[in-house]
């Protein structure tokens, strides 16, 4: 019998059950900011993963109840709670993946950059602890502005002498999830089949869906391209406005972050076929950080897929040039923040 489990095709004798070929639940995942709007549903989705042995939840408050609640789900992972900086080191020791959704979300009228002053400091202090306690872990940064918080994390890790660019990821999965959904709706396609690469960064015009590279291959009129691109770029604001002061995307974000965690765990488990769009250190353009499709393996980023940027449409080429100054400024702002603190 040939079956596909976790993306790995293996031939197994008939007598063996599917459970025997699944990778063991052996990975430890920490969520920092676990009691928040994203953290709670993300914890739930990670608790559902058959690959996770320990789910460690950290926040500055309210995490005990979240952990008690999740611990009653009869899935393999053990749930542990950690409250406040004194317990952060224990939360992080030995983990394989650290996911960071800690920080404040947007309110109507705010840009992601408006969050910089608060979230930059939060990410800085959390990454210092990551560097001290689990420098080998995959690090997933969700806290906005991702365009700046990832460079901040890189600088802190460099200062601590443990920076591995292959293991630091800005989570831009939600942009892909949204692009897939909106394109499927517009073109009446089966959602499961649609995959749209989204490159650049994770804010406003820096979010660049490459509709010409959508799979399955679809054609769009100029109006459709313009409308879909704008909708994907502003989808976060669509949610912020609908929530009217109660925060930004949390449920779809948790779904997207859980997908990225699952992809990372499959890569760690040896699946040779893991590709995700993510914001990483990159040489794809002249900018030091850039979101694109990457191949993820046991050691993190294995390769950055350059083909998506080849043969793009004129609209996409223009949008790519237009986003660079903003993305560059956001990257520099992050780097400066760390250097200013000395
Ligand atoms: P929230 O306010 O509901 O939750 C944030 C949590 O972080 C709270 O539980 C808070 O106690 C915790 N926190 C604050 N300071 C902390 C610290 N020093 N250490 C540990 N935990 C700390 O916010 P929400 O909606 O969960 O959003 C979190 C972040 O994710 C925001 O920055 C938001 O902009 C960002 N975001 C990113 C997206 C992406 O696509 N990358 C999409 C949506 C939101």
From TrEMBL:
Family statement: Belongs to the LDH/MDH superfamily. MDH type 1 family.
Protein's UniProt keywords contain Oxidoreductase: yes
Keywords linked to the UniProt accession: NAD, Oxidoreductase, Tricarboxylic acid cycle
Domain Lactate/malate dehydrogenase C-terminal: 173-338
Catalytic activity: (S)-malate + NAD(+) = oxaloacetate + NADH + H(+)
Gene from which this protein is expressed: LOC123448865
EC numbers for this chain: 1.1.1.37
Residue intervals of the Lactate/malate dehydrogenase N-terminal domain: 28-170
GO molecular function annotation: L-malate dehydrogenase (NAD+) activity
GO cellular component, one term: cytoplasm
Quaternary structure and interacting proteins, as annotated: Homodimer.
Oxidoreductase found in the keyword field: yes
Full protein name: malate dehydrogenase
Biological processes annotated in GO: tricarboxylic acid cycle
Source organism per UniProt: Hordeum vulgare subsp. vulgare
């Amino acid at each position: 019998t040939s079956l596909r489990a976790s993306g790995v095709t293996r031939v197994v004798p008939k007598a063996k059950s599917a459970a025997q070929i699944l990778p063991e639940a052996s990975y430890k995942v920490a969520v920092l900011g676990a009691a928040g709007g994203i953290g709670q549903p993300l914890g739930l989705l990670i608790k559902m993963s058959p690959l996770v042995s320990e789910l460690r939840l950290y926040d500055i408050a309210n995490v005990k109840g979240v952990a008690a609640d999740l611990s009653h789900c009869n899935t393999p992972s053990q749930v542990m709670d950690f409250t406040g900086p004194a317990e952060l080191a224990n939360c992080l020791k030995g983990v394989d993946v650290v996911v960071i959704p800690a920080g404040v979300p947007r309110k109507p009228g705010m840009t992601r950059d408006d969050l910089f002053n608060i979230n930059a400091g939060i990410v800085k202090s959390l990454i210092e602890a990551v560097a001290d306690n689990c420098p080998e872990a995959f690090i997933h940064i969700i806290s906005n502005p991702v365009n700046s918080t990832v460079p901040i994390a890189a600088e802190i890790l460099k200062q601590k002498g443990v920076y591995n660019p292959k293991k630091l990821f800005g989570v831009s999965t939600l942009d892909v999830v949204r692009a897939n959904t909106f394109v499927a709706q517009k073109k009446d396609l089966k959602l499961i089949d649609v995959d749209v690469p989204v490159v650049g960064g994770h804010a406003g015009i820096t979010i660049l869906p490459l509709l010409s590279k959508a799979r399955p291959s679809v054609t769009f009129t100029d109006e459709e391209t313009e409308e879909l691109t704008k909708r994907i770029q502003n989808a976060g604001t669509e949610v912020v406005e609908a929530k009217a002061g109660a925060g930004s995307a949390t449920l779809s974000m948790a779904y997207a972050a859980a997908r990225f965690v699952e992809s990372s765990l499959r890569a760690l488990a040896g699946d040779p076929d893991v590709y995700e769009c993510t914001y990483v250190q990159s040489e794809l353009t002249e900018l030091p950080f850039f979101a694109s499709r990457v191949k993820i393996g046991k050691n993190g980023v294995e390769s950055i897929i350059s083909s998506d940027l080849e043969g793009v449409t004129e609209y996409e080429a223009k949008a790519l040039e237009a986003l660079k100054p903003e993305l560059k400024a956001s990257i520099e702002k992050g780097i400066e923040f760390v250097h200013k603190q000395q």
